[in-house]
Amino acid sequence: MSLAPPIALSILFVSLSGCAKDYSLAPPADSEQIIVTVKVPEELEAEVMQLKYRSTVCTFTDHTASGRAYQRDGYQSLDIQPVRQGQSDLYRASLPMDGGGPCQWRLSNVTFGVAYKYPTRFGENVTYSAGGGIVVIFDHNNSPPGGADFKVAGDLFLRKDYYPWIFEDFLGRYKKTISLTGEGDIYVKYQALQARQVYFEPVLHSDFALYSTGPKVKKKGNYTTYTYPDGSVVGDRAHMPNFARLQAIRLAAEGKQ
Q1: What range does the domain containing 135 cover?
Q2: In this structure, is residue 219 part of a structural domain?
Q3: What is the rounded distance in angstroms from the CA atom of residue 186 to the CA atom of residue 191?
Q4: Prediction pTM value
Q5: Which of 27, 39, 239, 255 has a Cα-to-Cα distance from 60 of 20 to 30 A?
Q6: Model confidence over 86-133: pLDDT tens digits?
């Protein structure tokens, strides 16, 4: 089993008294590990995993909207690149639960996913936008994208459908982007307090691409137009495609084959 490179991150914060406080992440060699595996389709690539560690020892002062001071857990962010397993389509990273150091850091959540490897296959100036993201929360705190959509007992095994979504935006500076649209928003968020194995298999349905065109003039009644894989055209004020409709179109088409 190939594991991600050892983690080393040192940050010193200087207090008002002039004394340096060691906020370094220093996972011990015997830390319990969470293994995250992503099965990556040929057209996609695994994104960098973004880890968030929290500390109840090294806190800091924040303020409410009314200006009242309160103490918050300290936090540190760390990026890990998942490692390809030989010549397979599996990418894996080992995440230490114990962040170590004087602050006694603990892994709070991880954000990861897949993106289009070559977005220009959809046009010369096409750029990748978003989608295909997963967040796993290992404690009772919210992740950067927010709280959990689902709560899971034990390990987490995900197999999710995605469709290419090509969008032309004419308001402001023109841009054409490719995204992965699936069930949920950009990120689907899970709380998995006991998980020690996380497996994610995105299934990309390249033959069922969705195209949308934004309004050229911003005024009431002008909506984004969606052209679905079956040729149907829908004007919709929604900011996201209709995933259930995409699924129904694909399943109907595959049933005829």
Answers
A1: 12-63+70-162+182-203
A2: no
A3: 17
A4: 0.86
A5: 27
A6: 999 999 999 999 999 899 999 999 999 999 999 988 888 899 999 999
